[in-house]
Amino acid sequence: MTSFTATYSPEDNKIRLYASSRLDAETYARVKEAGFKWAPKQELFVAPRWTPQREDLAVELAGEIEAEEMTLAERAALKAERLEGLSHKRHAQANAFARRADELSQAFYMGQPILVGHHSERQARRSQERMHSASTAAVKAEKAANYWLGRASGAEHFANMKNEPRTRANRIKTLLAELRDLQRGINRAHAALAIWEEITTDEQIRHALGNMDSRMIWSNYDLYYKVDSGEVTPADARQLCIEGAMLAVDGPNRRRWIEHILHRLAFERSMLGDVPRYDGELTPVIIQAFAREHGTESPKSTVIDAERLLLESPVPLPAHIASDTSLELSEDDWRDLMQACGYTVPEKKARRASAKPDTAPLINPSREQAEQLQAIWNLRMVAACKGKRSTAKPNEVYATTQATYSANSKGDYDPFKTVEIAADGRRVRMEWKGHERVRSGEPVARIRISAIGGELYKPDAVVIITDKPTKPLPIDLDTLETGARQAANEEAAA
């Protein structure tokens, strides 16, 4: 009678099945159907991944599943040794073929030609063919030797890579993503059950099946058509949806998958070292991040008092956290729970300094300041026209609402725009100095201007928003106006 031994390795998540003798046809078919593959060199059946069905079959045949004694590194070392043996064998064959080809080549020493028509022609051609065959076989054997040597090196490299801390950390992230995906199905099932508690009449059931997302109500895509055709009654359809959702909530396979992933997470974290206990300030944001990482649906955390925090969810929390829709613990208990679940609070990243210069504040000046700044611009335009045949044209302050300004300031050619001004009241522009574009001044504020009816030798109009609060401009307008008026008077006198 055949006896079995089953082992499981958390390093590679594989179940291995050892048999004392050849399996009978029925058992072999069951093992192959479950996904086990025969490894001839190791003389065992191996499942590429753990599943509840494969675990059940292994327990049925072996009685229990033991821990795999051989580590991944040891198994890789044995495989590398076996592959290196194949490489040495092929190297020996390549050398033997090369020596044979060299021996046969002696018949053509110093370029001895084949004598056509001579009695030695036939033998010479056979020697030539054997020499070419031996050379080809030597090349093929050398390539095979290099191939198996590369396989051996790759096996050891893969085992070492699997044990690297960075690889383990990435594997933990993958397992957490699988955990959230499994928990997401349970959360949707709870939400579907809540929906079906409110939907009871036939009309409501028909409307839900025809208009709601089938995933929200845990319905098959063709259930509505079966109800519409009379194949299934609305009450039976409702019961089918409820049973399906209940199976997702209380079904054994999904729970076993979650427990298995939690065990793998514990193993991977133990290999990285003990998870540190969080001793910093505990906030609702930290609690929500912890719950979200473990699959909690829309977590919300609030502070109850100085030392207690509450976690709530519209559906029951993950079973390894709590068995209800809410959980209230003290700060110490929350720290213990996060440590037990292997959660590490991420460190705050240093805020990246912006490479862009600080933006000057946007100011809506009062009418008095706006008119004073407009007067300065008008006077400076007068001074700028000195020595020219054209005469400067003054402009006036333009008053409008925020809605009007926003509707007419979105494009480059719209009449309204926002500009920067320096401490001297001049508009800051981009200028070329050498091979670089630089600002004409250091901006101290931003204001709104209007170019409606723009003409040569006419300055822009200062815009004020009538339905926005005003702020003073950080500019000495009195001094600027005095200087501008003096320059304009000098131009007029000239």
What would you note in describing this structure?
Pfam families: DUF3560. α5 (165-198) packs antiparallel against α9 (234-250) and α13 (367-384) packs parallel to α15. The longest helix is centred in the N-terminal third of the chain and has 42 residues, at 121-162. This protein has helices at residues 25-33, 52-62, 72-105, 121-162, 165-198, 202-211, 214-217, 223-228, 234-250, 252-272, 284-293, 331-340, 367-384, 402-407, 477-493; strands spanning 4-9, 14-19, 37-39, 44-47, 65-67, 300-303, 308-312, 326-330, 398-400, 416-422, 430-433, 436-439, 443-450, 461-465. It is extended, with a radius of gyration of 42 Å. Helices cover 50% and strands 14% of the residues. It has 494 residues and is an alpha+beta fold. It has a five-stranded mixed sheet, covered by helices on one side. A four-stranded mixed sheet has the order 9-14-13-10. A three-stranded antiparallel sheet has the order 6-7-8. It has five domains: 4-69, no CATH class; 74-162; 166-254, no CATH class; 281-340, no CATH class; 367-493, no CATH class.
Number of strands: 14
Helix content: 40-55%
How would you write the strand order of the largest sheet? Answer: 3-4-2-1-5
Largest sheet: 5 strands, mixed
Shape: extended
Tally of contiguous helical segments: 15
Chain-averaged pLDDT: 86
Low-confidence stretches: none
Order of helices and strands: EEHEEHEHHHHHHHHHEEEHHEHEEEEEH
Rg (C-alpha, Å):
42 Å
**Distance N to C terminus:** 124 Å
